[in-house]
Amino acid sequence: MELQSYRAEDLFEWVTSEGQDFTLLDVRNNEEFGRFKVEGPHLSKMINVPYMEFIEKEDESVAQVQVPKEESIRIVCAKEGSAKYIGEILVKNGWKDVRYLEEGIKTWGNMLAPKLVASENGYQLYQFIRPGKASCSYGLIYDGEMVVFDPSRNVQFYQDFAKAQGARVIKTFETHLQADYISGSQQISSESGAQIVGHENDFKDAVFEYKSVDDQELFQLWQEGPEIKAIHTPGHTPGSTSYLIDNQYLVSGDAVFILSIGRPDLGGMAEEWSRLLYHTLKTKIDDFNDDLLILPGHYLEWSEANREQLFVDTMGSIKKKNADIYGISDEGDFVKFIKGNMRKQPDEYAEIRKVNAGLLKVDDEDQEIMDLGKNECAASMYGK
Length: 384
Hints:
Layout: E1 4-6, H1 8-15, E2 23-26, H2 30-35, E3 46-48, H3 51-56, H4 58-65, E4 72-76, H5 81-92, E5 97-101, H6 105-110, E6 113-120, E7 123-130, E8 135-142, E9 145-149, H7 155-164, E10 168-173, H8 185-192, E11 195-198, H9 200-203, E12 211-212, E13 218-219, E14 228-232, E15 241-245, E16 249-253, H10 270-283, E17 293-296, E18 313-314, H11 315-321, H12 323-326, H13 331-340, H14 349-356, H15 364-371
Parallel strand pairs: 1-5, 2-3, 2-4, 4-5, 9-10, 10-11, 11-12, 16-17
Antiparallel strand pairs: 6-7, 7-8, 8-9, 13-14, 14-15, 15-16, 17-18
Helix pairs in contact: 10-13
């Protein structure tokens, strides 16, 4: 049987669909595997046997695979070559359905899966799931134009997606200065002239041109299209801003998650930003209608997805799921809660913030390294 390849998009389909029976063999070293691995609601079998073990002790490593030879194996490595090499070993040893991931784990880390949230009143609203980062960006299309909320650095995807829908990208909205991934807004703006929108409290030091957004500012981009309302929701960062679309959908960034809330300690000012976040919860988020549909910037686990595998929930449901957080009625107790759940932020987050402000230039290879791995943006649930 000839060794075959597969793409990140194929892997997403397999790990999010029932009935796809295969074993995922990750051959990166133990440290890389522990830091970042493939996840999905229907990925039930995954093993880690490092590439170097196959090189040094091939027979013993093959024995570690422990997968019946009539079953399917999908191999993941850092850059493709190792997976292809080990795939050839497994085929030689009798496995009949073996495939390796084209271009390695970075393609999984950058892949975006589009999901339709709504198609009504002449517009389409999409959620772009990035499973490698457990993050979501969003696209709103109306009358041949698309605006993007919190784009990742996979700029080509947004451009191709807009073109496929007969649209062009005219604006990007940043909910905050991202720390966990490199934003695509600067590149989108330089390539298409799209305007970047963000809050001055986060972007005042940015070296690129952007439009500063005000609390309660209305964006009527189309004469009869959906209205976008900016709502300043500081706490995760001082400039955190959520965007209300058509008075129905709230792109909440890292202010509101389906499970937990955005951690307010990434800027090194845990107490000050915790107090900001508490004020936001009590004066803004508590007043949101229970029927408001929340579109978060991140998810913690796949159990948060609905039947359509969209990460969306009502504000009322979210408050019930996070009653231990929303039920805190004293500011001091809230600060204690945050400090009690604090954990070290990844070292690269400080550098990513500089990149997203245009203050640091790094090449594509370094961006790949900085940008890879699941987010650490929730205030709780992960533990210390």
